[in-house]
Design brief:
It is a single chain. The chain is mainly α. It has 2 domains: 198 residues, no CATH class; 182 residues, no CATH class. Helix content is 70%, strand content 0%. It has 18 helices and no strands. α12 runs antiparallel to α16. The longest helix has 30 residues.
């Protein structure tokens, strides 16, 4: 499996030392994965159980059947892979944090170190994989013979998602092949499952040594097409973007369940797809704008650079709208006719989200409330009046000018108090 380099020890053979070291590394990384599962990802089980009793079991049975049975193999595999990869990305930085330190002195190869990190991340994904397994069990009421490949596929999915999340030098091809392998593993088909085994073997073959998260390169290798401010924004948001993605995914899943369980005319189904796609984009942009406003407040140094207010606004808008464009892929699987309409509103929605980032502290409900409120109105507009998308697309020009004016008037050194009652603040001099 790997090459080891041993110092001769009296009374102990090299093979015996290899087994002892391999067993120690397995136990160490298994404990790391279990602790991460308990501290980071296990709360998702509690949330699911709460929703299970609030929304009733019938809802989850129908949702599991729609996602894991009624949809195509690749669609259900892509849905499961997206969730598992989000969990793996949350655990990977913590697993790989110390791999550039004392662990480099262990007599193990780079390949074994990487495989042990993949094992730890896969174990940390167990709560999410258990949830997906529960969905698979619920969906077997319609197809009981598919349970073995579903369970084995989830085990392979955990390894594939972990392999895609580990940071190595050959990042892009390894991530693409890992996600493709996860999709094949979770497809519920034996032929595709065998294809996933071939892809995961290719991922292991092309992967290089693990890059430590502590001393790793800057976001996107220290370069970004929009410059340093965009790289700062990407790094500030980090893995927190997973939450808006999951919330938007829930909206799309509900729309998919609605369309799958209700025979509707083509025009009505297209209207529902437009509404669901636009609302999912609004949910994502609201969460992403709120994260950006909290984690990357206005930067006074940036105002001293020869960059206009329009350019600063456009950088944030391009990042937000470009990230939201990823939602068009699952939307195409749900209702392809809605994709052009949702894509057309992204420029306006991205500019409004960029404005909300700058108004976050002055709004009563923050950037989230502003973007979600306007996004809901836009979703209703393109749902009932598809022709309104032309006006919304043209509205991006005045939205850019309005955002630039907000950026110009922004006082980056302004002191804004937190909105809470002094009676609940132990540092205040009130008697409440």
């Amino acid at each position: 499996m790997a090459e080891f380099y041993h110092a001769s020890a009296p009374g102990r053979s090299p093979a015996g030392g290899t087994r002892i070291l391999l067993g120690a590394m397995l136990r160490f990384h298994a404990r790391v994965g279990v602790r991460l599962a308990l501290r980071i990802l296990a709360p998702s089980l509690a949330i699911l159980f709460a929703l299970y009793f609030i929304l009733r079991p019938e809802f989850f049975v129908n949702l599991a059947t729609v996602i894991l049975f009624d949809s195509g193999p690749l669609a259900r595999g892509a849905f499961s892979t997206l969730i598992a990869f989000a969990a793996a990305r949350a655990a990977a930085p913590r697993v790989c944090l110390g791999l550039g330190g004392w662990m480099r002195h262990l007599p193990s190869s780079a390949a074994l170190t990487r495989r042990m990190a993949v094992l730890a991340i896969a174990i940390a994904e167990l709560p999410v994989l258990v949830i997906l397994a529960a969905f698979a069990v619920l969906s077997t009421r319609s197809s009981p013979g598919r349970l073995p490949v579903d369970i084995l596929g989830l085990a392979g999915l955990g390894i594939a998602a972990a392999s895609a999340a580990v940071r190595v030098k050959s990042r892009a091809p390894r991530t693409a092949l890992g996600l493709a392998a996860g999709t094949l593993f979770a497809s519920g088909s034996w032929p595709l499952f065998l294809g996933g085994i071939i892809l995961i073997a290719a991922v292991d073959r092309i992967s290089g040594p693990v890059l430590s998260s502590k001393k790793g390169p800057a976001p996107l290798g220290g370069r970004h097409p929009f410059g340093l401010p965009a790289a700062v924004a990407v790094r500030a948001v980090g893995s927190g973007i997973v939450i808006p993605i999951l919330l938007a995914g829930i909206v799309l899943a509900l729309i998919a369940a609605f369309l799958a369980n209700n025979p509707l005319p083509a025009s009505t189904a297209a209207a529902a797809g437009r509404f669901g796609g636009a609302l999912a984009a609004a949910v994502f942009l609201g969460g992403a704008a709120s994260l950006l406003a909290a984690r990357r407040p206005p930067w006074p140094l940036e105002r001293s650079w020869p960059r206009s207010a329009r350019r600063r606004v456009l950088v944030d808008a391009a990042l937000l709208a470009g990230s939201a464009a990823v939602l068009l892929i699952p939307l195409a699987l749900i209702e392809a006719q809605a994709v052009p309409f949702v894509a057309a509103i992204l420029p306006l929605a991205g500019l409004r989200a960029s404005s909300a980032v700058r108004l976050d502290r002055e709004l009563r409900f923050g950037a989230w409330g502003m973007v979600l409120g306007e996004g809901a109105f836009i979703a209703l507009a393109i749902c009932f009046a598809p022709w309104a998308v032309a006006a919304l697309l043209a509205a991006a020009v005045p939205a850019l000018e309005a955002a630039a004016r907000i950026e110009k008037r922004l006082k980056v050194s302004r002191w804004l108090e937190l909105h809470h009652l002094s009676a609940g603040d132990p540092l205040s001099w009130s008697e409440g």
